[in-house]
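Subject: for your reference before the review

Hello V.,

The reviewers asked for a structural picture of the protein, and I figured it would be easier to keep everything in one thread rather than splitting it across files. Below is the amino acid sequence we used in the manuscript, unchanged from the supplementary table.
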Amino acid sequence: MKQIDVQVNPNLEYMNSILLTSRYNEITKKHIGYGLMNENVNEYTNHIRCFFEKHLEDPIYSYIESLIPNGFTFSRPVELMLSLGDNMDFVRQYPLSDLCIKYCGGLPTIHSLLDMLKTFERKTGYFTFFEQTKNYYDLIIDRAREVVNKYPYISLLENEYGMEQNSYNYVITSLMVGNFGIYFADERTKKASMFSVFTTDDFSISPSILLHEFSHPFINPLTERYADAVKKYEDTYELLKQYKLPGFRSGYGDWNECVSEHFVRAMVIHLLQKCGLTDMADQMLNNDLSLGYKYIPFILEQYQYYDNNRNTYPDFESFYPVLLKVFSQNIERQS
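And here is what came back from the structure prediction:
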């Protein structure tokens, strides 16, 4: 029986520790408007800064900083490090997405970066340091496991989407800002190994964010697969821009991301309601509407229709083209 594996990933912590002690936040603030590393000071971050202090002139820092303006931000460092799996030899175990390869600077750049990371780890002995400091996460892992064990999330997700995945990995890190749903698809089985990454605040370690990040690997591939159908409703993006918050504060940067985020956020509310968490569902709905996701009320109606007609639509993919039609509806109806 599959279970959600709560964990701290040493490879991701290694990258995040380098980013934390680099000019990453300084550079991302210029390009994005805010820093992507957590600036809170605690015993763990003090240990990290002290450990790396004597290595700040190492070429790995300038190399990584040179990649940031071209897109080595948000989920790209996360996906790269999680693609290494659970080994610590800096050899990729999972295939990277085309988008990750592009924003990391291409495969030759990725190979150079991994070689430098391996050399730097051998020089510093980071993984030994991590083993000595990872107990910082013990209480946080316990808190996450309480959330994970409270509801049958895997059966809830796989029944709703009508498909199975290979594995569910709940990766915790206190060093980043934001949460990410990373997945690596097996082309043979069409199933994914999922590595959803969560920061450690109370909002992130909750049923709503768990469902959000684990829904992306079900929905995002469909948005890519049905790209031509999605594009037919692209005019709706112009209409929604008046409600979108500046920059990336609404959680998307283009029409495809906007579609996926609408469907994911609506699904979170739908599944929270199925868990009996109506107050949390109402809170998420109000929050998402304030962020500009004006089509969620329409999508929720469609999810109910989907549930009631599973004989016609055995899985979410069979319903996806029908669901897209929601973006042709009059947005003013729900105001």
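For the response letter, the relevant points are probably these. Residues 66 and 106 are 14 Å apart (CA to CA). The chain has two domains: 1-199, 226-335.

Happy to draft the paragraph if you're swamped.

O.
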